[in-house]
């Protein structure tokens, strides 16, 4: 069962209870942590295209968790497709989302409008990783260019 399917089941349980049951109480009843319930509900709110990717098994639930931080469903779908197509793990997906969030809104809108423009995220991600590695090497005493 995927995170989004669990979230949909949790939503059904909540909608049938009066008064609304809290995440904490629900977690206790299910024998899981409150953060799991929160994560499942978050995944239930993903666009249908994203939910289908996890149901098909083309991308892992965990790799998609960072997309919840994106503003629009279009960004979530495009980023999920990028994560799937490039087989990113959770850490790489989180870094990619951070790069996207750092972009000005006007550029973020362009990325979701133009299919070919989204490859720029891969380039930005590569540059950020290279910069990080270079800065780590620069701080070492044996770096040859100091």
Please explain how this structure is put together.
The longest helix has 20 residues. The mean pLDDT is 82. The protein has 2 domains: 45 residues; 92 residues, no CATH class. Helix 7 crosses helix 9. It is mainly alpha-helical. The protein is built from 9 helices and no strands. The radius of gyration is 19 Å and the shape is elongated.
Briefly summarize what is shown.
By secondary structure, the chain is mainly α. The protein has nine helices and no strands.
Give the tally of structural domains. 2
Instruction: Report how far apart the termini are.
Output: 53 Å
Uncertain runs with pLDDT below 50, 5 residues or more?
Answer: none
What's the mean pLDDT score? 82
Measured as a percent range, the helix fraction is: 55-70%
Structural class: mainly alpha
Specify Rg, calculated over alpha carbons: 19 Å
Order of helices and strands: HHHHHHHHH
Q: What is the 3D shape?
A: elongated
The portion of residues forming beta strands comes to: under 5%
Largest sheet report: none
- Number of DSSP E strands: 0
What attributes characterize this protein structure?
single chain, about 70% helix, mainly alpha, about 150 residues, elongated, 2 domains, 9 helices
Topology:
Blueprint: H1 3-15, H2 23-30, H3 34-44, H4 48-56, H5 61-64, H6 73-85, H7 90-102, H8 105-113, H9 119-138
Helix pairs in contact: 1-3, 2-3, 7-9
